[in-house]
Amino acid sequence: MTQRHPTVITDQEIAIGLTPARGASWMREALVDAHHGRLHTPPRVSADLGDGRLVFTAGALDGEWYGFRSYDSFGRDAGDQVIVIHDWYDGAVKAVAISNELGPRRVGAIGAVAADVLANPLATSLGLIGSGVQALAQLQAVAAVRRLTDIAVFGRDPVRREAFCARANALGIGAYPVESARDAVAGKQLVLVATNSATPAIDPAWISPGAFVTTLGPKQQGRAEFGPDLIARADLAVTDSIAQTHAYDPPYVLAGTPEHQRLVSLGAIVAGERPGRIDPDQVVVFCSVGLAGTEAYLLNRLVEHGVQ
Fold first, then answer.
1. 3-class SS at 118?
2. Contacting residues for 226 by C-beta, under 8 A, at least 6 apart
3. Domains along the chain?
4. pLDDT tens digits, residue range 270-299?
5. CB-hemisphere CA count at 13 Å for 171?
């Protein structure tokens, strides 16, 4: 076999090549491939290493590649994530990304597709709860698929939320801070909840008719930023990986509740095989769990497009 040298991609190259619009476009393809069974997306697995875990998400695209992402739960700020893809036929490593940039952009891309497909087409106002890396990635991604004219942001730390809005404005996304989660959510047509809160960050009563809501943060029993009552408020509840919701340890926040059975696959909706929003007054909640294999999917797309 002729020796090949894998492409090595860094955060800087990902920041340039994986734009929010491009990420959303490729993620739409990934969701359809996963729904049709061409993209294999098993639930994540982990190895217990004492003070933390090493977590793996694997995936494979039939006839093209297989690969994985690894990351740790030791809580170190600068811990690098690694994404590797192999050639389907000879097993050679095609590409390696050493990146903390790909993960948030990947989750942002999933959220952008969900918002594009499930939110009211006329929605322009957005309430964001959260002021971290994932909150910004999600906001950028949704702004790439929707024209936003009113963006309210709440974070518990007033200094961080002011800084977050300043950064969003520097990126051309007009946002302003508010003093409470309720102020951020009230009257908004799109609501993004991207926190690390162990308890519900919003009251379902705050959600306006016709709103689209995404949850991104903790989602296990005993530590979750939303509860079953939020899903009960929804006319339609959607997730990107039903299989992953059955694989959490501790269990998924909806496990054992009637609301768990209501979850519909985002891939099925994107593929046109299940209905999404059918009325402008419906409340739709998207429970993001991070469809496995999509990190490698995006890395392969970057390589295919010559981003090196």
1. helix
2. 193, 200, 201, 202, 215, 219, 253, 287
3. 7-103+293-304 (3.30.1780.10), 104-287 (3.40.50.720)
4. 999 999 999 999 999 999 999 999 999 999
5. 17
- Using alpha carbons, select from 306, 302, 308 the residue that is nearest to residue 67: 302
**H or E element: which one contains 190?**
strand 190-193
What is the per-residue pLDDT for 3? 61
> What token pair was written down for 9?
């991609």
Confidence of residue 266 (pLDDT cuts 50, 70, 90): very high
Q: Which of 127, 123, 167 is nearest to 145 (CA)?
A: 123
Q: Look up residue 181 and give its two tokens.
A: 């989660």
> How large is the angle between the packed helices 133-145 and 158-170, nearest 10 degrees?
40
Half-sphere exposure of 187 (CA within 13 A, CB side): 4
Q: Does residue 174 surpass a pLDDT of 90?
A: yes
- Look up the pTM and report it: 0.96
Contact (CB, 8 A) for 111 and 213: no
Which residue has 């729904």 as its token pair?
35
What element of type H or E holds 56? strand 53-61
- Determine contact, residues 89/96, Cβ cutoff 8 Å: no
